[in-house]
Amino acid sequence: MRRTSASLVAGALVAALAWASSPSSPAVAVDPSAGVADLTQDINQILADSRLTVGRAGVVVKSAAKGDELYATDAGKLMIPASNTKLFTSAAAVDTLGLDYRFPTTVLSGGRKLGSVLTGDLVLRGTGDPTMLAEDYDALAAKVAAAGIKLVAGKLVADDTWFDSVRLGNDWTWDDETAYYAAQISALTASPDRDYDAGSVIVSVAAAGGQVKVSTTPETDYLKIVNKATVGTTTDVLIERQHSTNTVVITGTVADPYQEWVAVDDPTRYVASLFRKALAKHGVRVAGPTVTGAAPSGAATLAEHQSMPLSELLVPFLKLSNNIHAEILTKAMGRKVSGQGTWAAGLKVTTDFAKANGVQVLNMRDGSGLSRRDGFTPTSIAQLLSAVRAKPWFKTWYDALPIAGNADRFTGGTLRSRMRNTAAANNVHAKTGSLTSVTSLSGYVNSAEGEPLVFSIMLNQFLSSSPKDIEDKIAIRLAQFSRTAPVDAVSQLRSTGETATADLECSWLKPAEC
Which keywords, in A-to-Z order, does the entry hold (predicted)? Predict the structure, then answer.
């Protein structure tokens, strides 16, 4: 779980107290009809929660069909969006790259083949595929062997030049460096699972024969394991990679099996180690060392792997709020539009897309929302949500958003344990967002009369545990909204099912806890 630094808490406290000195006034109904007046009164009541006394709340609700604003409070104020940033990144990626976009990973020959000997280098070139598994690199190695190559006289070249060499996003905190949700970004990467947590390895511990046994998924010697843990009556264990190294130190006690997702240092070198090991398994020996660099011009293709299309990648990306997918897609957009696989180029694509679609205020520092300097207004998010409804790809994108109260992990996503057995269940399609003192929920809901609504709820600088239940109450109330019929808000706003209260997206907690 993400550690909350003292500086962040102090900063949140100072900012919160400053805002507390000039609290916002409750919103006033913008439509005199009874239904809108009741909605305004009810949302004002929900936002009067004492946990927001020293915090900030920005909310906007609009009719997607009619375009009129049904509720707004501080909707024009710039706020930290957390993973609501992914709404912009994903929409821009689909529009720019296309639903059929795939990431190729290629093995190239840098020399001539003489019998079973490749006289030059063997090149592994990536374009950022976050879905590559160890088994996929193994399949590429098998194809090299099937081509009749048994000895590579030259080097193994890892070509990650499709992206630049900047590995970590703007403003990411140093104490997140080893966390899998803040893994380094590279054009060559590997995932340990089918959540596609690129750039990380699963480290597992279990008590066996009076000792703590350690294993990794995939099996790799790229990490140096220092096991100081002991068998105990409870499991209270810390698995942590040391800063700027690939040394993982394990301390504490282990009674039951436990695992941690750990980001590797230098995913390009990690992938090269997986591929070299796979080559050896298939009888291909590389005489030279592993190096990084660009493939020589004219290198011939020996094998290629194509990722799933972006239309399918959207599901783990948005349902599970995968940060690494967001950053890889950001650099991929930059590469396509300007020939530069950089954050700067990719973020320009996203901001240009947003502005072209009517978004008036935005400040993007990364693609995922990990940066605390990302800034959007609730109105800006609502503008995006309204505009993309007219896009030909909208339905695919809409279906990839988390769906409230649906227990299936790849349907409900980060909303699967929220708003169950309410009018919002299987109705609200929305993106969650969580950081320390930040939570947000923005998306779509159909009213009680079937009217499509867009909404954005952004809560910042609270000092309590995450008040996601406030978001849920508002979303449920919107699902009950009628322009003509009043709603008994007191009896209807109760949400059944568990509400996640962590400071991180629930799917960032491994194993999944929500």
Answer: Carboxypeptidase, Hydrolase, Protease, Signal
Q: How far is the C-alpha of 52 from the C-alpha of 70, rounded, in Å?
A: 22
Query: Do residues 449 and 502 touch, judged by C-beta distance below 8 A?
Result: no
Instruction: Say if residue 268's pLDDT is above 90.
Output: yes
Looking at the structure, tell me whether residues 86 and 232 fall in a common domain. Answer: no
**Has 86 been annotated as catalytic?**
yes
Residue 240 amino acid letter? E
Q: DSSP character for 292?
A: E
Q: Are 64 and 81 in contact (CB under 8 A)?
A: no
The question of whether 465 is a catalytic residue gets the answer no
List the domain range (segments joined by +) for residue 124. 104-165+267-308
Total-model pTM: 0.91
pLDDT digits (tens, 9 = 90+) for 118-131: 999 999 999 999 99
Helix (H), strand (E) counts: the chain: 13, 23
* List 62, 63, 83, 371, catalytic entry: 83
Q: Could you give phi then psi for residue 267, rounded to 5 degrees?
A: -60, -25
Confidence of residue 364 (pLDDT cuts 50, 70, 90): very high
Catalytic hit among 62, 63, 77, 86: 86
CA atoms of 128 and 442, how far apart (whole Å)? 28
- Of the chain, the end-to-end C-alpha distance in Å amounts to 14
Residue 148 falls inside a structural domain: yes
Shared domain for 86 and 114, answered yes or no, is no
* Side chain identity at residue 359, one-letter code: V
Q: Which amino acid is at 276?
A: R
Q: Are residues 427 and 503 part of one domain?
A: yes
Residue identified by tokens 């009674």 is 255
Catalytic residue among 307, 321, 386, 456: 321
Give the mean pLDDT of the chain: 91
Residue 134 lies in a domain: yes
Written as six digits, the tokens of 355 are: 């502005």
**CB of 290 closer than 8 Å to CB of 113:** no
Q: Give buried/exposed letters for 371-401 (b at 16+ CB in 10 A, else e).
A: bbebbbbbbbbbbbbbbbeeeebeebbbebb
Q: How confident is the model at residue 485 (pLDDT cuts 50, 70, 90)?
A: confident
Could you give the C-alpha distances from 206 to 97, 210, 219, 257, 259, in angstroms and in order?
A: 43, 10, 16, 4, 9
- Pairwise CA distance, residues 414 & 2, whole Å: 17
